[in-house]
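Forwarding the complex inputs:
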Amino acid sequence: MFRKFYLLYGALVLSTAAFGQYRGWSLDTVNQLKNVPKSVRDNPGSYRTVYAGYHHYTGGK
Amino acid sequence: MSADTPPLSGPPKPQAKGLNCPKCGAAITLHSFGQAVTVVCASCHCILDAKDPNLAILQQFEAATREVKPLIPLGTRGKLRGTDYEVIGFQRRSTTVDGITYYWHEYLLFNPYKGIRYLSEYNGHWNDISICKTLPNVDHDMLGSSSLTANYLGETYKHFQSADANTDFVLGEFPWQVRVGEKAAVTDYVHPPRVLSSEKLDKEVTWSIGEYMYGREIWDAFKLPGAPPEAMGVYENQPSPVTINVTGIWVAFAAFTVFLLALMAFLDMRAKKEPVLHETYLYNRAEAKNETSFVTDVFELTGHPSTVEVKTFAPVSNHWIYLNYALINQDTGQAWDFGREVSYYSGYDSDGSWTEGKQSDTVVLPSVPPGHYYLRIEPEADPSLSSISYSVDVTHDVPVFGIYGLAFLALLVPVVIISFRAYTFERSRWSESDHPPMQLSNMSSSSGDDE
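Prediction (whole assembly, two chains):
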């Protein structure tokens, strides 16, 4: 029973991996936005990134 | 009487013979017709000769263990594996190992056409037992002192344990000369869910074959009230809940891993890995007082939705540079907003030299549809940096090997869980045997010392 389940499960895992690879899945997360105005191309400063003001690491040991 | 086996259940019960105990006068009824050799008076617990018309007393024992009450009362009828049986006898037996006495119960079942079979119960674990029809083959070890395996009807049984079994308490009818205090040498071989047992009394050896049953099956078969006692621990022939061939599952896992590697190689070859942008820029702090953001040239992504890799390189040393990126589809206005830091630190202290961070960074954007795109870049840098150059590389349709890593883990985890469960179950089983896992490892290490 488990063997059958595992064979099906394994096939599903491989199919998902292949599908994900084909569709361009990624493990990195990014913020998606819609309807960015076309004026950004002419005036890049009009766009406000959500990452502005990120606290930068100034470390080292 | 018809030729077919009549059902035993339902009144009136057929009573073969009504007698009285010669000691206490209590009524005794023989249910097993001529098969009973001894019968125990339920009132005074005298063991009587069932073959004697006057029921001669064979043994009297003080039922100090009178409190022993069969879980299945004598006279109960039920259908076991499609055959009607009546419980006609009960005995409690015990064995002492390392100063600890273990008790189990045996029930004799009788069908006038099928004869006798037994049910044994230990800590809520049940076995349906019958006498072997052929003699098992026993393989002895090199010393010949004990047998390691036995073969019965083509199945190999592993030796589990050998012990002396004592009869403590009896009730009902028995097709042999039962005696309280009788000792028999019992050896069990297991092949779950079956157990092969030899019982040696004087010079007579009796082989029986048992099959594990769950308490609920017994309760259903005999329509007993309430719930069966809960099974405690793992019994010698209890079937593992992991009813699979663990080796077979590992073979399947290995096959899947090979498929996964082949898939990875195939899709890696098939991936376009198409460079669509390569630019080098200069960050200048003096100019940064004004607006620092800018946009790249437009590049086209073709084909199906796929990954876009953005790689940043900056020759920083004990500094950082941070880039606010936005990949913008100029046709649809859809954007992927992300920030990436490139920082690299190094030094020397009492522990020696150290480094931290990298001069490059890579991010892979998921499922970017085809279209015309540009990057909006807004750099920030360490205040102590006056200027620094950095390069941006954009590649379309790159494979993400992390997906294969996750797939590998997804394939591995259930196999490891199942193997662990099977291992712990078998370990519990054999820890109660004459061959506990610990002792086996001790034996092998001690034999290694001897050499």
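The first strand of chain B starts at residue 17 and ends at 20.
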